[in-house]
Amino acid sequence: MEKFTVQPTEVMKRYRFIAVVGASKNPEKEANTVPAYLQQRGYIIVPVNPTADVVLGQKTYPTLADIPEETAKKIEVVDVFRPSAELPQVARQVAEMKKRTGRPFVFWGQLGLENEEAKKILADAGVDYVMDKCMRIEHRVAEGWK
Description:
Layout lengths: L7 H7 L2 E5 L8 H11 L3 E5 L5 E2 L2 E2 L9 H4 L4 E4 L6 H15 L4 E4 L6 H10 L2 E3 L4 H8 L4
Helix pairs in contact: 1-6, 4-5
């Protein structure tokens, strides 16, 4: 299967409301610096991490299912910072969320993350996906940075 069903730069241009699964409190980690970069550029970040209460100044939820309905209905992209082996589990949560709220539109597996089972789950649920791409890099491409 392809690495993505929608152009990564289009996702960056079109959508602004992002749930970040695996968002980190640790400013040394990409799971903190990438969402911080996006937040600084006007994206709305909803952190998902079972071991943190607050990440990047935002209330953090243990799982996607724990995000309140009114917020869940706004989420356009789920950005994932978890090991590739965990992508099917997250994809199932995304499929469930899509059934419940009609969202998200896109599942995004960060650079280095890809899983064929997750792609099938997402395709069956009608959720576009991007795998093995960094949102920060794709935002820069979308903005015309070299």
